[in-house]
Cysteine--tRNA ligase
Amino acid sequence: MTTIKLHNTRTRGKEVLNPINPDDVRLYLCGPTVYDRAHLGNARPVVVFDVLYRLLRHVYGTDHVTYARNFTDVDDKINATALARKEAGAPGTLEELVQERTEETISWYLADMAELGALEPDHMPRATAYIPQMIAMIEELIAKGHAYADGAGHVLFSVKSYKDYGALSGRSVDDMIAGARVEVADNKRDPMDFVLWKPSTDELPGWDSPWGRGRPGWHIECSAMSHELFGDSFDIHGGGNDLMFPHHENEIAQSCCAHPEGDFAKIWLHNEMLQVEGKKMSKSLGNFFTVRDLLDQGYPGEVIRLVFLQTHYRKPMDWTDKKAKEAEATLRRWRALTTGINPAPTASVAVIDALSDDLNTAGALAELHKLASAETAADLLTSARLLGLLTDKMGTWSQGEDHDLSHHEKSLFDARQVAIETKDFAEVDRLKTALIAAGVEVRMSKTGVELVPGPSFDASKLDAI
Ligand code: AMP
Ligand code: ZN
């Protein structure tokens, strides 16, 4: 069997994956807080873990891998969007508006991630469906002396009660206090303590609990959902490296204290950030664009996916238009080469080996380029599909690429010939402007005219010419 090696944040080195149960390899990824459309950075972990999921299914068998990715559907930011809608006059109670917001955001998310070729996880638990499990876990933590209620509706986790706190990111508690914004509150016995449960107002979503009507803190959600789905120990836990502290440290503290007989997650996998000019793309910095923005601009999901795969998941990456153009050209070439070809029975060993070496997607793509150069189309097709590329579902964008452009090339060429005689270039300019507006790159030389559809190509705009 193929040996898969993954970089484990916890041990800071590459480790061989030895599944707890090879008949059921379990993978948990922290999913989005569903208050708005996913930005491109949010899509990075989705694509990275989709590649891992596909690799695991290839190695252990489709039915022997379970992938869970949650939806955080209870959060201040969601409440804030619902409040804003209410203030703008939207009908319905606040609770209904919250639900409306989470439902629409989840459906956008699923549609956008599907465009990127991401398979749906086996489980997509919503935090609001696991409140009893969260309450039970908090009670367990209180009973074991790891958490305390403040008598005013809050329950806090006592960080000092867990001696391994900070082991994941390798930082001491003192360093963490110095480096992070730790909220100091009167009800905390220690500034590092974090919220497991907090009170809610009558209008906002809330649930009855032994500490009054309230709602869970963010960290307990993942601990409770992963435990319900996977038990005390599972194989791989993932997320962006921005979640390492405090979210993942807190998940570990909660899960290991509530269930000390288990290991929680054996391997911790963290993707690096998608950046804009050296800074993390994030909602709060305002330097973001959504996946849907790019799709609407005409970038096919498959092109976005290929751009992601070119950078190793543990390296920061930038989105650039140049990368997208190159990826599009590559995919057009590969699609042309594999049209009408039956896929080979198995993926190339070199591609599998590259992916098995800590998801070396750049190495896997280099192998695909070799297969394309050698024109071994059947192998290229099967291996590309292992990476979620060249699938039938994702290919519609590349069809009709010759959409009448040769006819427009001829019109433009003829118009220019006339203009050279008459010295009146108005018609040439009109055609060029219309083509550019349709997202076509116009290349004119002495000998001819070449029209190349760009990423924002919109065939419907050609009709007006
Ligand atoms: P959030 O909804 O902010 O909790 O983020 C959802 C997921 O997206 C988490 O796994 C984050 O680590 C990840 N994420 C957020 N911003 C970026 C970024 N700029 N690059 C890569 N991953 C990100
Ligand atoms: Zn989480």
